[in-house]
Amino acid sequence: MMFRKLFVYAALMICGSPLFSADPAPPIGSSILEGKLPEPSAKSDFVFADALRGKKAMVLFFLEPQCPVCQNYVPSIQRMGVRFKEDGLTWAAVDTTYEITPEEVATHSKDLALGIPLLHDKDLALTRKLAVDRVPCVVVTDAGGKVRYRGRIDDQFAPGVMRKSPTTNELVDAIKSVIEGKDVQNPWTKTAGCLITHHDKTKKPALGAPTWAGDVASIIYGKCQGCHRAGEAGPFPLTSLKETLAWTDMIREVVQTKVMPPWHANNTAGHFVNDRRLSEKELKTLIEWIDADCPEGDMTKAPVAPVQEIGWRMGKPDQVYRMSKEVKIPAHYLFGAVGMPYQYILGEDEVTEDRWVRAVEVRPDQRAQIHHIIVFVLPPGAKFPEAFQGGGGRRGNPDGFGALMLGAYVPGDFPIFYPEGSAKKLAKGSKLLFEMHYTPNGKEAVDRSCVGVLYAKDAPKHEIRTRSIANMRLRIPPEDPNFEVKSISKFDKNAVIISYSPHMHLRGKDFAIDLVSSEKERTSLLRVPRYDFNWQESYHLGQFLKVPAGASIECTAHFDNSAGNPANPDPKKEIRWGNMTWEEMMIGFVDYYYE
């Protein structure tokens, strides 16, 4: 089963609607050999003119190493380098990162392992000349250095989009045309990805503009740093002024479009305690600061970045349960033709006494290669996979497989803290089971993920349970843009719900949860009008919901299985329930306790 997020794979994750570049002046026909050129990384003697000598074409891969869409395309560039090795083609990558040293460029080159020279366009002169405003972007020149193609690699990846394979091949087509001495049929395409930041250091900040020290640092630290710091899901850190300056144009775009901070429920402020949205005042402050070219202010008065436990958001755990063995993640799995099968790994330790868990945080060891983790609790004496038969290991259990869930990981989500006086039970003799969804990304890795827990000192007043309200019989017709699926679960005892978590895959369009009383009266509980598989939040209620015995929780979801859905892997296929991303699920999770 998949739970909560696709990397984009681990996506500012800049997810949501694809972010495309505008149309700057096309550079087609201009020469890369004229004007200032990027500097080679340390230990590289790359020279453009020399690199072109005796070659038929050159490909420049513009990137920012921390941009998740760029990271997704690294394996594609590696494969193309091998494919065209004997075709008179020379390659180079161009690092557009803001203000880094040659040593940092060399580190980027080693980490990316592209197998081609990495150059740093220090003042973005070539980037501007070739109208590269987003990365990833590729430029193809002929033997004389003249630009014959500028644009995207293909349509496989974009913010919020991850296809099993591309349906277009712009870069490959351009390379073939240039090598064969033909005109490129489509020499200019828009790019989708991370917006490159440009700073005008000669610009004087406007009087009265917000400053980093006075206004902005506290917003960045409070609303962004939880994900955007070392060891967390954010693809780049925002823990200082310098780090933030490298991404200000991107920040402006995603906060104005409300892609960031991620939040997809349609509710009034304060209804959910974990609502991440910026206030109108915070949004206005950020935009005005960026528009003024980011004045520092009096840095002696700047707030200090909060000190946080490295590796844990919940603080230091009382106990850490690790997988019982390491898993070797290959660089590629079956050449990318299918996804790597789920791995089920037992935890190394059995629960030695009855314990009550008041907080849970699942931690991936290899974030870049992990789509999600679910940690299940196998009851004493239970075995896998028998424990999951009958909808959750205990026939007749209304909670389904949710009854076995302890916690989950998805990039960008937060640790679970249960309300005061409530906790989940870990029974003596139980074993943990890690469901691992790995996503090979061109680099081999070894993973041994874990889960940390905080224990309650005493037995709680309320035992937290998780119910999965699922429709496992769904069949979504081909080309249907708005197919409806429902699921429902009745509560036979008085219950109190503390949170909701909708779950679908790439065709998920919207999700609603309602309370239906025994008299068939309906109360709206949650509306997610634009479901985003890349950000599958849990919504924690500020005021808990009382569900009387006899009432039901009903979930209604719509799926877009049409070609109009850019994330749709195959609109011509009937879709049924399945674990993998290109299959579908429809689940409404609720955390609750009985009164």
Structural features, described:
The protein has 595 residues and is an alpha+beta fold. The chain folds into four domains: 157 residues, Glutaredoxin; 90 residues, no CATH class; 151 residues, Jelly Rolls (Sandwich), CATH 2.60.120; 132 residues, Jelly Rolls (Sandwich). Helix content is 15%, strand content 29%. The protein is built from ten helices and 32 strands. A hairpin with a 4-residue loop joins strand 6 and strand 7. Helix 6 crosses helix 9 and helix 8 runs antiparallel to helix 9. It starts with 38 loop residues before the first strand and ends with a strand.
Corresponding CATH superfamily of the largest domain: Glutaredoxin
Indicate the mean pLDDT: 87
Give the termini distance in whole angstroms: 30 Å
Q: What overall form do the CA principal axes indicate? A: globular
**CATH class categorisation of the largest domain:** Alpha Beta
Count up the helices: 10
Helix content: 10-25%
As for the number of domains, it is 4
Number of strands: 32
Strand order of the largest sheet: 1-4-3-2-6-7
Let me know the largest β-sheet: 6 strands, mixed
Structural class: alpha+beta
Q: What is the CA-based Rg, rounded?
A: 25 Å
Provide the CATH topology of the largest domain. Glutaredoxin
Spans of at least 5 consecutive residues whose pLDDT stays below 50 are 1-18
CATH architectural designation of the largest domain: 3-Layer(aba) Sandwich
Strand content: 25-35%
